[in-house]
């Protein structure tokens, strides 16, 4: 009985390892409409690496370019929050502690945008800073609220307001002057 359990356990372990290897094989993402691939230098070594975004927004994978081959290195957290936000763009960042940013938009009304700054620290991809942009229009007044949260938990709030609009020739209201409140 022990022998059967050990064999079954080994068999299941082998399957899990095989699935993990297949899931992290870069060639499987190329020319596949289910993924967006961004090429830029993640680790600041002068060579373009690859960032793969699963269009269902379940995961973002980072592949480093090692001797001309893309090797799986990092997997990010889920930044869509069960479909509430959609990843719009992934960009290279050249800061000391920031390697890339993920820009996501609220999938409903309201136009909220979040920008996540990620860095490589202790051989892990970690969230360094989150910036949230939230715009609203109320009683002929437009406001833009910006919230910056650092990994230390320190927050900064900025609110830009405009009370007067003018009509453009295209019928779109645009603020003519901003004030900081």
TrEMBL record:
Keyword list, A-Z: Signal
Top-level taxon of origin: Bacteria
Lineage: Bacteria, Pseudomonadati, Pseudomonadota, Gammaproteobacteria, Vibrionales
Protein name: FG-GAP repeat protein
Signal sequence, renumbered to the chain: 1-23
